[in-house]
Design brief:
Elements (H helix, E strand, L loop, with lengths): L42 E5 L3 H15 L7 E5 L10 H6 L7 E4 L6 E4 L1 H12 L9 H29 L5 H22 L12 H14 L7 H4 L6 H11 L2 H8 L19 H4 L2 H6 L1
Parallel strand pairs: 1-2
Antiparallel strand pairs: 1-3, 3-4
Length: about 290
């Protein structure tokens, strides 16, 4: 490592940023005018199948599996590496330019909802599912939901960035965030030694929020060979929980929606109807 002395005043160097240099910038707001498409359903989702995006598509598919027809939705692909999140239409829904973003057009006045945790709470309250109404069960679900919101940046923007995406390997940064991620896995493992699901009162939006991040890590789906590097197999209770959720049919469908990477059979770029899972995945479209 070469010694770095921060300047008195930081300035934006576009050459920095590693794998995401083309979309990282220190200012907000749109970069171009682009209206968002609107489909036939009241719920319009604009997203990508990152862990934060998967939270919401899993929730919607779980609601549909319970028979909530009002949870039918159109899911539109936002390619963040292409800067779609900086289009004027998307920024109107989420001024923070992050996926996922949701528009609920079921009422007289459309409702915008952004930030994945906020969307989960909104949908849970709208449909009366996966978030208990009474205390202390409700507080426990929300505590684990917000644990994820506060913890995952250390996993993604910290460990994931410096281990897999940074333009150079920095031992201090990787060690710092590896230690924190392993501590977080231990937090989960100790909790899941006591209960089947995080809230202790059944499958909830807490599990839907935590699983795409930490379940994905436990199942070896994130950041190259990070599962080996972090010895995720040692967290037996996390493994049990991650595998159980992975087998839920709604979770399998939710993982496919707005997915634009990986196996073509797992990629459903847009979702407008339940039949799309059988007819509109990328392998099926390529065969037409």
């Amino acid at each position: 490592m070469t010694e770095y002395t921060p300047p008195k005043v930081w300035t934006w160097n576009k050459a920095n940023g590693g794998a995401f240099a083309s979309i990282n910038r220190p200012i907000a707001g749109p970069t171009h005018d682009k209206e968002l498409p609107v489909g036939k359903h009241p719920l319009q989702l604009y997203s990508l199948a990152t862990p934060n995006g998967v939270k919401v598509t899993v929730m919607l598919e779980e609601l549909l599996a319970l028979g909530h027809k009002g949870a039918e939705y159109d899911a539109w692909l936002i390619r963040i590496n292409d800067g779609d999140q900086f289009g004027s239409g998307f920024v109107d829904i989420n001024p923070n330019s992050k996926i996922p973003a949701l528009m609920d057009r079921s009422g007289k006045t459309p409702v915008r909802v952004f930030e994945s945790g906020s969307i989960l709470v909104y949908l849970a309250e709208k449909f009366g599912e996966f978030l208990p109404a009474g205390q202390p069960a409700r507080a426990e679900v929300l505590s684990w939901l917000f644990w994820q919101m506060g913890s995952a940046p250390y996993l993604g923007g910290g460990f994931g960035h410096f281990y897999a995406y940074a333009p150079e390997k920095i031992e201090y940064a990787i060690d710092r965030f590896s230690m924190e991620v392993k501590r977080q896995l231990d937090v989960l493992d100790r909790r899941l030694a006591e209960v089947e699901y995080l809230s202790g009162t059944g499958y909830s939006i807490a599990d839907m929020a935590v699983w795409p991040w930490y379940g994905g890590l436990a199942l070896g789906r994130q950041y190259n060979d990070s599962a080996t590097f972090l010895s995720v197999q040692d967290y037996k209770n996390v493994q049990r929980w991650a595998k159980a959720i992975d087998q839920r049919p709604a979770v399998k469908r939710g993982r496919m929606v707005n997915r634009a990477f990986g196996e073509p059979a797992m990629q459903l770029h847009e979702r407008h109807d339940a039949s799309d899972f059988d007819t509109r995945t990328q392998d099926k479209l390529a065969a037409e």
